[in-house]
Amino acid sequence: MLKVENITKYYGDFLAVDHLSFEVKKGEIFGLLGVNGAGKTTTFRMIIGLLEASSGTITLNNHPIDYTLTDKIGFLTEERSLLTKLTVYEQAIYYGVLKGMKKETIEKKLDEYLQKFHISEYKNRKIKELSKGNQQKIQFITAILNDPELLILDEPFSGLDPLNVQLFMDVIKELKKKGTSIIFSSHRMEHVEMFCEKLVVLVKGKSVLEGNLKDIKKAYRKKNIHIISESLDLQKLEKVPGVIGVEKNESEIIVKIESQENAKDVFLFVKQYDDVTKFVVEDATLNEIFMEKVGVFYEN
C-alpha cells in the first residue's frame, strides 16, 4: 500500500503541494486529478523519489521510498521519455536492467506484451521510426515490464485510438487483479470514471475534493435527466421548477436539475407527451463535478 501523509513541497517561496494526504491500497486504482500546474507532476516525482518533500512522509508497504524500492515502481510519464535512437528491444533491455531484471526475463515479457499490443514486428525497429501511438505502447510496456507493485500512469492514453485505449484498459485491469496499486491521472474524466474507485482533485497544490467516486457523485446534489422525445417543448421545460439547464443533442434531451427532488416536477411535465420513450435520472458526470469544484477556486 502507498501512503502519502501530509506532504508539502516548496520551490523557494512557492508552495507547489500543500499538506496532501491519500492512500492507495493493493489492487486499487486511484485518481489524482487537477488542471495543469495543480501539483500532480510534483507529487508523482516525490512519490518515486526524484524530489524530496519539504515536509511529510511517503511510504510503500510501510517503508520510506528510496532506491531499494524503486525497482518495484513503474511510471508512465505524460511526456515521451524514450531513447528514440534505440530499437524497441534495446530500450526494453535498458529499462529492465535498471530495474534489476535479467535479460532473459526482459525479452520474454517484452515478447508477450508486443504480441498483446499487436506490434511484434517492431521489436528491432528504432523508436524514432514508430508512430506516436506505437511509441506510447512502448513507453507503457517499459513501465510495466517489472510487474510493479506501484504503477503511476500520467495521461496513459495520449495519442491512442479507441481500439488501443481498450487494449491499455485491459492490461491495466489485469495488473489491478494481480494486486498492483495504480495511480491514474488524466484530463479525460470519462476515463477516470471507468477506472478509479477513489480520487483526489488538486487545485494549486491543495486537495479540494476527495473520497470514493461513487460517494462523491451521490453527494453532489445536481442531477441529469435523459429524455427521448421529438415533440417536447423545450422552452416550457426550461421553466419547470428546479430545472437549471436543457441541452439537446442528436439522440436525446439532457435536463440538468438542482436536486433529485426536482425530478418529480420534470416527470409530471414530460408525461403529457405521448412520444416519450426514455426518462432516466442519473448522477452528474465527474466532468461536471470537476468543472464546478475547480472553477470556484479560479473565479475567486
Please write out the topology.
Elements: E1 2-11, E2 14-24, E3 29-34, H1 40-47, E4 55-60, E5 63-64, E6 73-76, H2 88-98, H3 103-116, H4 132-144, E7 150-154, H5 162-178, E8 181-185, H6 189-195, E9 198-203, E10 206-212, H7 213-219, E11 223-228, H8 234-238, E12 243-248, E13 253-257, H9 263-270, E14 278-283, H10 286-299
Parallel strand pairs: 3-8, 3-9, 6-7, 7-8
Antiparallel strand pairs: 1-2, 1-4, 4-5, 9-10, 11-13, 11-14, 12-13
Helix pairs in contact: 2-3, 2-4
Could you please describe the fold and organization of this structure?
The protein is of the alpha/beta class. The chain folds into 2 domains: 2-217, Rossmann fold (3-Layer(aba) Sandwich); 221-283, Alpha-Beta Plaits (2-Layer Sandwich). It has 10 helices and 14 strands. A 6-stranded mixed sheet has the order 6-7-8-3-9-10, sandwiched between helices. The protein has a 4-stranded antiparallel sheet with strand order 2-1-4-5, with helices on one face. β7 (150-154), α5 (162-178) and β8 form a beta-alpha-beta unit. α2 (88-98) packs parallel to α4 (132-144). It is globular.
